[in-house]
Amino acid sequence: MSYYQVLGFEKEPFSTSPDPDFFYLSKEHEAALTNILIELRLKRGLSVILGDVGMGKTTLSRKLIPELKCREDFIFHIILDPSFAREEDFLAALVHNFELTGNHSSTSPSTPYGRSGRVVSEVEPTSPGPLEMRDSLEKFLFQKGVSEGRTIVLIIDEAQKLNRNTLECLRVLLNYETNEYKLLQLVLLGQLELHSMILGLANFFDRISFKYTLNPLCREETGELIDFRLRQAGYQSSMQLFLDGAVDEIFHFTRGYPRKITMLCHRALKALVMRNRSVVDRVLIRDLVEEEVRAGWVLAGAPVYQK
Ligand SMILES: Nc1ncnc2c1ncn2[C@@H]1O[C@H](COP(=O)(O)OP(=O)(O)OP(=O)(O)O)[C@@H](O)[C@H]1O
Ligand SMILES: [Mg+2]
C-alpha cells in the first residue's frame, strides 16, 4: 500500500507530473490562461509565456489542451521538446505533426496531441527540402485557415531550447496572414533565458502580441494550492492536514515556487506516515528542510532554505 493510501487518499496529492486535474488556478496562471485563449480566439499570432524553473509552464500548457480540444474549429499541436539542430528537422516535424498531405517523413517523434483529423498514409522515399516544406506549410495554413476558417495553433514548451534557425523559421510562418488575422497561432512557453534570446531578435520580439511572466504564488495561494491538491486527491475531512504554521514555513522555504511546494509537501506526507503523526506542523517542515541541508542537497548560495 502506498503512503498516500495509508493516509486515505485515492490519488497521490503531490505527484510532480503536470496533471491538469491538480492544476490550481493561481492569479498568475489564470491571467496567463485567459489571455492566451483570448489571443487565440482573436488570431493575434504570437504569445510568449516566461517562467522560472518549476513555475508551472508545462502544467499550464496541459491545461490548454482540453480548452482547444472542445473547439471543433481548432487544429492544434504541442511540441514538448523543440531542440531541433537544423531548420529542416523542425520543418519536417511540423509537416509530420500537422499531418500535411504529401506525408513527408519526420525525424521528430510525434506527440499524442495533434488532431487535424487526417490519416497519414505513406512516407515519401525522399525527404523534401526546407523550401518545399515551408511551401506545404504555407498552403496548409491558407487552406485550413482561410478556406475552411479554422484556427491553427502551435504550442511549444521548453521554448528556450529553440535555436536561432528555428526561431527564424517561426518568424517566417508568423508572416502568413490575411488583412485581419494571422494564420498561425503560436504559443511559446519557456524559461527566463528565452526572454534574452528573443530580445536579440528584434523582428521576432516585435511580433509578440501577448507576453507574460509567471511569478511565484503568494502565501495565501500557497495554502490554497496545498488544500486544492489534497481535495483533488480525495481528502474529505474538515480537519486541517497542513496547519497554518506549516504552510507559513512551506511558503518561506519555497518562496511560492509550485514545484518546490509540491516536493516539500510530498516529503511532509511521507514523513507523517513514517513518524506515525496525524498533522503536518511547522516543526515537521523545519525538520525536513534541515535534513536536506545536512545531507548537502541544497545548492551553495541558494536563497531557498535560508532563514
Ligand atoms: N498552478 C499549479 N497548481 C498545482 N500544481 C502546480 C501548478 N503549477 C505547477 N504545479 C506543479 O509544480 C510542478 C512543476 O510544474 P511544471 O512542470 O509545469 O513547471 P515548469 O514551469 O514547466 O518547469 P520547468 O521550467 O522545469 O519545465 C508540477 O508538479 C506541477 O504539478
Ligand atoms: Mg516544463
> Any idea what the CATH superfamily of the largest domain is called?
P-loop containing nucleotide triphosphate hydrolases
CATH class of the largest domain: Alpha Beta
Number of domains: 2
Q: What's the gyration radius in Å?
A: 22 Å
Corresponding CATH architecture of the largest domain: 3-Layer(aba) Sandwich
- Supply the helix-strand structural class: alpha/beta
Low-confidence stretches: 103-125
Based on Cα principal axes, name the global outline.
elongated
Give the rounded overall mean pLDDT.
Answer: 88
CATH fold type of the largest domain: Rossmann fold
**N→C terminal distance:** 37 Å
- The run of helices and strands is HHEHEHHEHEHHEHHHH
Number of separate helices: 12
Helix content, binned percent = 40-55%
Which strand order do you get reading across the main beta sheet? 2-3-4-1-5
Question: Top keywords for this entry?
Answer:
5 strands, alpha/beta, Helicase, Ruva Protein, domain 3, binds magnesium ion
